[in-house]
Every structure is written in C-alpha cells, then in structure tokens.
Amino acid sequence: MKDEITREERVTNLKGLGSSRKRVEDARFTQGKGHYVDDINLPGMLTGDFVRSPYAHARVKSINIDAAMALDGVVAVLTAKDLEPLSLHWMPTLAGDKQMVLADGKVLFQGQEVAFVVAKDRYIAADAVELVEVEYEALEVIVDPFKSLQSDVVLREDLDPTAPGAHGPRKHHNHIFTWEVGDEDGTNAVIDDADVVATEEMYYHRTHPCPLEPCGAVASMDKVNGKLTLYGTFQAPHVVRTVASLLSGIEEHNIRVVSPDIGGGFGNKVGVYPGYVCSIVASIVTGVPVKWVEDRMENLMSTAFARDYWMKGKISATKEGKITGLHCHVTADHGAFDACADPTKFPAGFMSICTGSYDIPIAYLGVDGVYTNKAPGGVSYRCSFRVTEAVYFIERMIEVLAIELEMDAAELRRINFIKKEQFPYNSALGWEYDSGDYHTAWDKALKAVDYDGLRKEQAERVAAFKRGETRTIMGIGLSFFTEIVGAGPVKNCDILGMGMFDSCEIRIHPTGSAIARLGTISQGQGHATTFAQILASEIGIPADSITIEEGDTDTAPYGLGTYGSRSTPVAGAATAMAGRKIRAKAQMIAAYLLEVHDDDVEFDVDRFVVKGTPERFKTMGEIAYAAYNQAIPGLEPGLEAVSYYDPPNMTYPFGAYVCVMDIDVDTGVPKINRFYALDDCGTRINPMVIEGQIHGGLTEALAVALGQEIAYDEMGNCKTATLMDFFLPTAWEVPNFETDFTVTPSPHHPIGAKGVGESPHVGGVPCFSNAVQDAFRPFGNRHTNMPHDHWRIWKTANDLGLHD
Amino acid sequence: MTNQIVKMTVNGEKKEILAEPRELLIYVLREKLGLTGPHVGCETSHCGACTVEIDGKSVKSCTMFAVQAEGAEITTIEGLGTPDNLHVLQENFKEHHGLQCGYCTPGMITRAHRLLQENPNPTEEEVRFGIAGNICRCTGYQNIVKSILSAAAELNAAKEAAQ
Amino acid sequence: MFGLALIELPLLYSEVYRRQGGHRMITSAFEYHRPSDLAGALSVLEEHGDDARVIAGGHSLIPMMKMRMADVPHLIDLQDIADLKGITIARGIVTIGAMTTQHELINNETLAAAAPIIHEAALQIADPQVRYMGTIGGNVANGDPANDMPGLMQCMDASFTLIGPDGTRSVKARDFYEAAYMTEREDGEILTHISFTAVESGFAYEKQKRKIGDYATAACAVLITKEGSKVASASVAMTNLSDVPVLSEAAGAALVGTSCDAIAVKAAVAAALEDIDPTEDNRGPVEFKMHVAGIIISRAIARAWSRA
Question: Which of C14, C20, C291 is nearest residue A52 as measured by Cβ atoms?
C-alpha cells in the first residue's frame, strides 16, 4: 500500500505528546451540558442542610428540633445522638485524628455542623434550619496557636492528653504532633560558627481554595439491592468508597462512588466532609436519595482551609554567599481537628523540600502542630502538600540573606543552585531530586526580562522617589522554585493506608478506537484530552479515537485521585505502561499477520513495520480488528491491558518567575507591570493545557499574595467568609502572563513528564510577595508578612517613614 | 405563600411555571425548566456563574425572583447555539482554551454574548472590564479574553463580508 | 423607617456568619405585588405598613433577604411603573426617574453631556450585570453608607421627590441621610425622582476599591466651576467614610476664591477629613482610611480642576 500522507502527517494526526490538542471536554461545557453534582435530580430526592454553630467554642447544652420537625415537609433532623449508635457522630480524618460529624457535646469552630435537616426541598430545609433551637454555653476561644500551647483551656476534651497522638507524643493538651527531619545539632553548630547568619520569622496566612463550585453530594441508598450510590465532589473517589465502606459497614462492592464533572477542586474536595456522611445516613434511613450542597459561606468557613504556618528560619552562609546551613521551625495551626489531607507518614506534608533549589549541605526542620478554634484542615489549594509553604519560606530566606550579605538576590540564587551535574541530588532533608538544570532556566529568565536593565531602572526610580519626584516605587519579584509532586512511592506514601500508586486500564475495540479508565479525576485539568495524547503516542491510535473515563468506582481501576499534581507523574505513567503492554501484544499480532518473527517488526507511529521492508506493515486499526477476528496461537483474543504504577520517586518540576510591580505608597495600591514565568515540567504533553494551568495557578497566587485570606477575630468569628471580603480577582485585576519553558525530563518517568498544575501557585506566591518586599528593600524593608493588600502595603510604607 | 404562574419566553420557547414568589430565577431555570447550564457559585451576587440574558440585559439570575421575570425573554447558554451550529463564542472558547473546569463558562459566554452586542469591537481592556462580573478560578482570564477578542474579530469579519 | 435592623454595612456580613446557618440563598416566604402605577404601589404600602417594602433593581435588597437580614412579608415590584422611568432635561433641570438603571445612566448621551460626573461615577459601581439592574433610586434611597450615588447627589445638590399618602414633597440630598439605613423617607413614601440643576463644571469621581465590584475604601465626588483663574464654586462629598455620605462645606469653602493650588487643596483636604468618621473593616484600619481619603480627595480635586 502506497502512503498518501507523510510520516510527519501521521504523527500530527495522532495528536499525541506535544500536540496542543483542543479539549474534548469543551463541547459539553461551552453548551451548558456539563454534569455537576447540583445538576443531579433523582426521583424522590430530599434536600439536606446544616444548622451550624455561631460560636467558635461552646458547650451544646440542648438541641430542640420540635419546631423544625413540625414544619410541613421536614422529614428528619439528625443530631450527634442519632449518629452515635452507628458510631458515625465522629469520623477519622486523613491525618490520623478524628473529627465530629455533628456537634457532640461542644462545638470547636464557628460554622461547625450541629444538626442536619432533611426536607422535601431546599426552601423547606432553609426554613427548618431557622427553627432548630440550640442552647450554647460560650467557652473561652483560642485563635492564636502560640497562646493555645500555653493555655489551660482544653480544646479537645475527647483526647487523652497523656496518650500519644497519631504522630507521636503530644507536648500539651492543645498540641497535635512534633515532626522533625534533618540534623538539628549539626545544623545549629554550623549556623553558630558561620560568617553570616540571617534570621527571619514569617507567617504564611490562612486562606482557602474556594473553587467556584462548592462541595456537595447526592447519596442514594437502594434498599432493594442493598447498594449505595454516592455522587459527589470527590477528588479521590476510590478513597471515599473505601472510607464509606469502613464507616457504614456496607461492603465496597455494594458502594458505587461517582465523581461527575467537578467545578474546580484545588484540594478543597479531597477530604470527607460531614455533609457527605450525613447525606449517606439520611439516605439509608429514609430509603430515598438525599442531596447536600453547601453554600459559599459554608465552604469558606468549614471546609479544608490552606496554610496557616508560622515559620522561623535561620540561614547561614560564607561571606561570599555560599549557603552553609538552614534551620526551620514551624508552628502549624490546624484548627479544631487535624484533617490535613497529607500522606499518612507526613503530618507536615513535604515541607522538608524547604531547602529549595539550593545546594545546602546541612539542614533541620521541626514542625509543631497545634489545635485552635478554627475550621479543620491545612493542606489544600494547589499546595503539593505544604510545598507552597516550603517554597515561600526558602524564597524569602534567600531574599533576607541577600539583604544581610548586601548582595543581589538573583546572583545569590545562582551561586547556590544545585548544579546540573549533581542530579539526581540528595537533599539534606532526605529527598532525591530527579533532574534539573537550574542555571539554564535562570539565565533564560533573567535575559528574557533584561534583569540588569530592570535593576538599573529600579535604582533610578528610587532616586527619583527620594528627590520627591514620584510617589510610586518599583519592585522586582524573583522566585526560583523546585516542586515535589507525583505522590508517591507506595513504600512511604499512603492515604489512610492506601498506597499512592495509580492506574490505567485500556480496552481497544475491534474497529480500532479505544477506551481507557484511570484512577484519577479531572476537575478542569483536561485529563480526557491529555491522557488520550499519552496513549496515542504509545499505541498509535489517534487521540480523537480514544475515550478517557474517570471517576466511577464501579468501572475505573483503583486510584488515589487527583491533587498535588500527581496525575501525570503517576496515572500518566500507568497510562504509558499500560499502553506499552498493549503495544507488546499488538507487536505479536502484527508479526503473526505479517508472518514474521515478533522481533522482525518494529513500531512506527501508528503501525508495525517489518524491519527493513517498510512497505510491509499493519496499522493499529488492522491489528485491533485481528485481535477479535483471528485465532492466534498462544494469544488470547481481545486487546486490553491494565497497569498499576508504583512510582519509584517523586518528580521535581521547577521554574523561574519574575514579577515587575509598581506600588503607590500613598494608597497602598500595587500594579503588576510584567509577569514572566518559565516552567520546566519535563516532557510537555499539551502546551496549550500547560499554559492554561500556569495562567490559573498564577492568578490564584496573585490572589493569595495580594489580599486573599481567611481571617478571624479574637472571638473566633470568621471575618472573610463571603466573596465581598474573600479576595477573588476579576479579569480587571489580573495581568497577562508571559509563559516560557525549558524541558528537563524526569529520568524515572516512562515519558519523562513531571506534572505542572501546582507549580505556578507554589512559585507564584513568593514571586508576588517578593515583588512587594523588593520594592521596599531600598527603604529598609527586610520582611513583611502577606497578604499584601492595600492597607498592609500602606502600613509597610508608613512604618518605613515613607509618608513623612 | 401563594404560588403564582409565571410566563416567560426562555431560549425562544414559551414557558409557564408555577412558583412561590421567593423562588429565585436561577433555581426555576435549573430545576423547573431543566436548564442546568447557569450555575450557583455564591450567595452574595458576586461570582456571576448564574448569569443569563433577560430582555437584552446581562443579569445574575440568583439575584432575581422568577416572578420578576413575568413576561420577559430569557436566554441561557443553552439558547446560544446548537450542537450542529455552535455560536462563534462557543467555538472560540474551545479554540483558545477559554475554559478548564467549565463551571463559570455558561455565565461567562452568556455575558460575553451581551458584551459583544454592547460593543462589537472591544479592546482588551474593554473586554476585561466587561467580564468583571464573572469570576473564574481556573483560567486566570487570559485565554477567556483571547477567546472573546477572537470571536469579536470573526463576527466582525463575517459582517464585513456580508456587506 | 425600615423594617430592617440598624446594622452598619461593614458589620453586616459578620453578623450573618454569627447566625446559625440555613442556606443563605433562600429568603423567607413573602407575597409579591406588581402594581402598574404609583397609586397601586402606595396603596399596598399603606395597607401593610412596616411589612411592605418596594423593590427596585433588587441588588441591595434581595441579597439581604437571602441572608434573612431583611424580612419583607410584602414585596412591591416597581418595574412596571412607567412614571418612574425616563431622563428629561428642561430649563437646565435634569430629572431622572428612580427606576433608571446605572446602565441607562451610563448610556444616556444627553445625561453624559449635561452631567458627565454621573457617567464617571456609575461606571465605577459594581459590575456590568449589577449595573443592568441596579437603579439610581435604589442606590440613593436605602441609606446604605457604602453606595456611591448618595454622596454624588449631595455633591450635585440634588433633590429627591418623595410621594406618599400625604402627597408629594421634595427633600434635598444634603438633608436626606440621618444614619446608616435611616433617611428622611417615611415608610409609606416612595422616592420617585432625582433632580438637579445641570451646571457646566469641572468634575471628578475618584474611588479607591480593593477590586471591581467592591464598595469604596474611600470615594470622593468633586464639582468645581472656574471664573477667570479662580475657583468660583466647589462642592466636595465623600462616600463610605462615615455612616452617611458627607458633603464637606468647609472643604468646598477652602477652595473657593483660590487658584486651586497645592496649599488650597491641602486646606480642603484637611477640612474634609475633619468631617468624616470612617470605621475599621476588612479594607483597613481608621488610620489607613483617613490617609487614603486624603489622597482620594486631593486627586479628585486636581482632576476636577483640570476639567474646569
């Protein structure tokens, strides 16, 4: 058969790796035909809604549901007493703690769930919630983690203060864990002896992922067949199924968990919330489906928050600027329950990546977790398990060290980067960084922005300001981050005991198209588009002919879900490996059809070719048909494969960001003039999708750095639980971002890809923050805490005397 | 309270629904008319995910009672194109990656539709100002703006060609 | 007054968080009235007294009803009342129907020529969707200290027409606001028109906010007329810097007769700052607001002067 198209066209037609393939998801989303939890309407479905505590800390003296129950259309009002016989009034958290599903004797944060009203519709449920009478006795509130560790007030009366917690001994009744890594004595000795030491304290403030779609679930107990179906906003549907089975006693094969379309996750939708548990119980009790969807205030006040890390750093260096040691201590405010969605053995996530992109010979990290009267959680919001905190820490410490050394911060970074030859690099805190070429990326970035030119411009602006010619100052924000994603190797990474492998199962159809199911679940990342591309390149079937399915635990192979940028590193690897199994069988089928030895054919884009005789080949389409049509000795019919991939290591994407910012010192208003982002995520599957992830992560970073926060007053009242005060930038506040890249493949990943979704947020926040800090550096600023909203920027200027 | 019959034209079709006065338009559209394109993202009228078009105005349908829409002509995302004949905006949002999770998209495209009626040839700044009532968490807006500008250019080129 | 608790806006949402929950999307039940004329609206108001309230664009009232911070057993929709629409200019007097939307204000070319400050201010209110529905009447009538139109109307020395069971009366914007959510309007009255004399002036509406859609951290409306090279008249009014809009007579007086130089502006700012009383909220502490207010006022004066 003579080819009518070129090899290059065959590659293009596949839309495999490297193609900016348009998304298959867009057809339904642009036509309003997405299928999200709140779109689900089942016959007889009831609505659930919570009575929540106005108090941050109080005894619950009584709950009177009579008036609520008397309202026509109210079916049930559940309290802890109703859940207790099922042992469901409390549930285990992902961090080895437990949390109340409904208030059991007391409440511990404002907005905590107290009672669950189940009614015929949302209108009756809303009225009924108002009618539930709860008597509270206010208790002393603790919102400061340092005060918490000194206080006689016992927050968690359910815990034995003398017994160890999930991560070891507890130092105090409000203490959760101490986690340490590295060599403290050695590090302190180096620091004590050093030429130069920079010390700094910094607070990474509490914020929240705030996906546009809030959390929700529809639980449907089929009493006839004894099967529970649970639809919901779950970033880890299989884990939810296992947890639901353990909690309810229903065997896993009788539970089907479905994550439909999810309107953004960002880590907010990993854990199990009281709303899910209550809707399951309500459905089991009533025998009809029960829907619970929270509103925005509930989302911001009670679901998985992010950050709240108080970090103290000491960094030592030689006079020439070579870093010799790093000491980090963290006080971690976890709120009322430690509900962090971390791998079990890492109560502080991967904070120990805090040596960053720098070759630091010795280091120590200690983290103390603390209870306060705030919402539970801590790990979420594109954080890669505390990597946002770690990178903010080191990217601020390097700036503070630069000030101490009176050096340029870009140069200080360059002096200390891990060199290309040092990879795989073993960090002082125990990570093996897989690959990197930091110097190339840094040079490329600084050249792209004309860094020297920017510093010159800045110097002129400082002079002009001091002469009184202008009231705006200029900041150059730098960030060079190393991420750690792709959790993770089963030997040390698990979620509630489930090893953090992931999976892909592929089935090729007789007429040459395919379906692949994965253990991950997209919340906007475009898996249906990009994973088909991985497969297309592996098995030579066009991506347009491959359906990717995720999220239905009845059909998808077990996976640990999507968060922490793990899908490409782990499920993407499983996809490639499963694809290679397909290709291996396809090779044998091709050889049989071509009547040659298995070794005499080789794979070429979309076909198997007889070596040396390229005009003799079988396309994947022909091979697929043959799999169902031919009786091949030694081979089963059909063409499918499954792979469960246990990654040998994490992956380490990295990047170089520069932000140029003007600040009006009188009003505190910043203006971003330029933002340049260079990302290295190894092999780039779909450049268009990568660029979209960078834009999105940087925008969330802008929000966090420039004003977004979850703030509490002294009484534990949340001050920022609506979108009036919780800063979500509009299109007007967000600049255009310039994106660039280098490619340093991961040596251990089947296709060299590292993952990218969280990188822009991890690297972006310190970049924006450093821009603000850098603007004030010539006037004496060392460190100012985020968020840098107008009034805090104004205060920085005020404190530095710039208003005099 | 007293249910009322509300007559509206929705996506070109005459509709009659029975609703309590307190039923918000967003829920009537989603739950009584099965139009689940517009979404709920907040309760303080900030996010714009519920945006529809009413009598030539972009409106947050979560901040209107259905009874207020008596006699009105309403267009939701579902009325902006068909699978065989997508609206230029829908095509351009796909072409330029103007969406990720899709939750803001119906409101965003519906708003962009009205924006281009107000101003068929907007600058980038005018687009950003014009969609400032629609929050997106995924895209960072850059590709949304690109999609809208591209759609505008295409619509204008078609208009010119027709003349 | 209003069937609404006296809660200052900055605290409004924090009060809501302290409530015990309930889906904050669903209002209490109410009866809906949609009169076709003013008489119909007035009669419902008279019949139900405190239990009745009019709704204009709904973008202040409906969110409050959803939060259950406002309980309105009888809601009177004004959208069908033709008398409340329209913008007319006659003998130098501009009359705007209360149900005129911000969008209509912005896009009315005659109004933009007669009173460009309204165009400039309206564009800084909320976002496009809210501007399609939000009305000038709703913005001036409810006494929300964060709304932009009240201060602007005081700057323009506008008057509000109120129609009630006892007839029609006119109240100056400068006399209308008593405290947060407390105005001169009696419960049974409806604010029907806003009117002012169109005077060709240098103008500016300067507003600092955290983002599009936010209320002002500080906002200032300035109108200046020039005679020769001196300020002939000046009015300066501030928004969201007290529990009511603030027209600073002293600030205006400090500019009159001057060439609006740096010294005069400084004096005007100092005078204006004496007249405001901002409260701390998520936008910042009092000290910050006072400083920003001064900056905003001086920028507004400078811009208005440049256009005079």
Answer: C20
For residues A301-330, average pLDDT: 98
Sign of CA dihedral C122, C124, C126, C127: positive
Nearest to A172 by CA among A161, A183, A164: A161
- End-to-end, the C-alpha distance of chain B in Å comes to 55
What's the CATH fold of domain C9-77? 3.30.43
Return the residue of C nearest to A670 by Cα: C210
What pLDDT is stored for residue A804 in this prediction?
86
* In the predicted structure, residue A394 carries a pLDDT above the cut 60: yes
> In CATH terms, is domain B88-162 a member of 1.10.150.120?
yes
Report, as an integer, the average pLDDT of A399-427.
98
Model pLDDT for residues A686-733, shown as the tens digit of each residue: 999 999 999 999 999 999 999 999 999 999 999 999 999 999 999 999
Residue A172 reports pLDDT greater than 90 = yes
| Bond into C165 cis (ω within 30) | no
pTM, two decimal places: 0.97
DSSP helix/strand/coil, A577: helix
Buried b (16+ CB within 10 A) or exposed e, A32-47: bbbebbbbbeeeebbb
Positive or negative, the CA dihedral A250, A252, A255, A260 is: positive
Residue A654 CA to residue A563 CA, distance in Å, equals 18
Dihedral of alpha carbons A688, A689, A690, A694, sign: positive
ipTM of the complex: 0.98
Enumerate residue ranges in chain C where pLDDT < 50.
1-11
Domains with residue ranges and CATH for chain A: 7-34+502-645 (3.30.365.10), 37-139+228-262+269-292 (3.90.1170.50), 305-487+650-799 (3.30.365.10)
CA dist C264 and C262 (Å) reads: 6
CA gap A625, A612 in Å, rounded: 25
Confirm or reject contact between B93 and chain A (CB < 8 A): yes
> Could you tell me the CA-to-CA distances from B138 to A715, B49, B105 in Å, in that order?
34, 13, 11
A607-610 vs C93-97, strand pairing mode: unpaired
Q: Give the span between the Cα atoms of A436 and C5, in whole angstroms.
A: 61
Taking 3-state DSSP, the helix, strand and coil percentages for chain B, each rounded to the nearest 5, stand at 40, 20, 40
Mean pLDDT for A67-94 is 96
Name which of A784, A765, A772, A760 is nearest A661 in CA terms: A772
CA–CA separation, C231 vs C226, rounded Å?
5
Residue B125 token pair: 């700044």
Pairwise CA distance, residues A30 & A35, whole Å: 12
Best mutation target, B103, B113, B129, B131, to test chain A (most A CBs within 10 A): B103
Indicate yes or no: CB of C23 within 8 angstroms of CB of A730: no
Omega of the bond leading into A787 within 30 degrees of 0 (cis): yes
Instruction: Mark yes or no for CB contact B64/C58 under 8 Å.
Output: yes
Task: Please state the rounded mean pLDDT for residues B6-28.
Answer: 98
Give residue C24's pLDDT.
85
